[in-house]
Amino acid sequence: MTEELIRQESVHLTIMHWGTAEEQALYSVRDKVTEAKKEETTEAKSLISDKWREASILVREGLETGDFVFHPTGKWSSLAHNLLHSRVYTLLHLAATMLLMLLALVEYPGVISEDESFYDGYQYTGVVFPVLVSIELSLLIFIAFDLFMRVVWQGARQFVLHFRTMATVLILVLLFADAIAAVCTTTLNGKAHLRVLRALRPVFFIETYRMNSVRRVFRQMFQSFKPISDVILLILLFISFFALIAYYLFGESNYFFKTYGRSFVSMFILRTTANFPDIMMQSYHISLATPLFFITYLTFIIYILSNVLLGVVYSVFKDVERKKFKKLLLHRRDALKRAYYILAWD
Predict the structure, then answer these.
(1) Cα separations (Å) of 178 from 106, 133, 167, 255?
(2) CB 159 within 8 A of CB 124
(3) Which candidate, 12, 66, 235, 279, has a CA 20 to 30 Å from the CA of 171?
(4) Residue 201 half-sphere exposure, CB side, CA atoms within 13 Å?
(5) For residue 123, what are the β-bridge partners?
(6) Other Cβ atoms within 10 Å of 58 Cβ, number
């Protein structure tokens, strides 16, 4: 009897053991399935997040008329793009370029001191010159960092092919060389050279992210110059023609028309009426018919040709603005399409 009970108990324990093992296996499979589902959900969320981030960048490029060639394609490119377009960085970049321009307010010869010992030619006595040069070099290094981040964002090939960016790099190199040369000449000769390259500093301000509208206006002005140049050439020919007539009519009696070059300059200034009637009075004492020549010239140059020039400028600039607006609208539509395809793609 005792042996039977022991056998039944062992069988019962064996069944319990196998049941516990099966349950553990089931629990293990369930946990793995749950973890796989969690990982799949995390990957799906990450993929959705990447899609929305990519779409937001495309929408931003559409709003800011950015070229899709510069669209970030990798991790570091995206990080550089986000940094260059962040609110804090753009304000910092704008402030740095403004400070670089404002240095002219405290640099020679922008400041005139009653104490002649404060300035000695182009030499700053005391600590003024080293401080200003240190600030200038620090700001130029920051601008160089901005350009380096553009290389990371756009890629070396696209960066080199962009004309405006390469012009900015050239100006930056020239200003670096100018600042270093000023330090060297001050150390060796006691006076810095005449730094005319400082006039290029506003280029960095125009190239900032927040000056996009200003750059567009400048671009449209250059685009509209070619049609306007025809009317400007017509006005110059008209002035040359009347300058030649004035040279032969009044060259002997009037100081303003002694030579053809002086005659052309005088007639060119007369277009603004700045030298009228002084230009006419010497010849008026000789002939009372002299005013007819000048009245005819002023009538044509002021009331006809100037209005024609104004009309052409307005018409051409309006046409360029209309084409640019159409291009911007199509660019934004293209950006929205690209963003939609990214979000709709499964």
Answers:
(1) 18, 11, 16, 45
(2) no
(3) 66
(4) 21
(5) 120
(6) 23
Which residue is associated with the tokens 């400082």?
Answer: 198
Please say whether the beta carbons of 343 and 52 come within 8 A. yes
Closest to 267 measured CA to CA, from 304, 229, 226, 296: 296
Q: Give the predicted TM-score (pTM) of the model.
A: 0.64
Tell me the backbone φ, ψ of residue 120, rounded to 5 degrees: -130, 90
Contact between residue 190 and residue 125 where contact means Cβ atoms under 8 Å apart: no
Q: Which residue has the tokens 């960066």?
A: 159
Sorted by sequence, the CB contacts under 8 Å of residue 273 that are 6+ apart come out as 298, 302
What separation in angstroms does the CA of 66 have from each of 146, 328, 334? 17, 10, 12
- Phi and psi at residue 253, in whole multiples of 5°? -110, -10
Show the tokens assigned to 110: 């922008």
Phi, psi dihedral angles at 254 (to 5 degrees): -120, 130
Helix, strand, or coil (residue 265) = helix
In order of 84, 90, 138, 165, 208, the CA distances from 146 in angstroms are 8, 10, 13, 11, 10
CB within 8 Å of 190: residues ≥ 6 apart: 120, 123
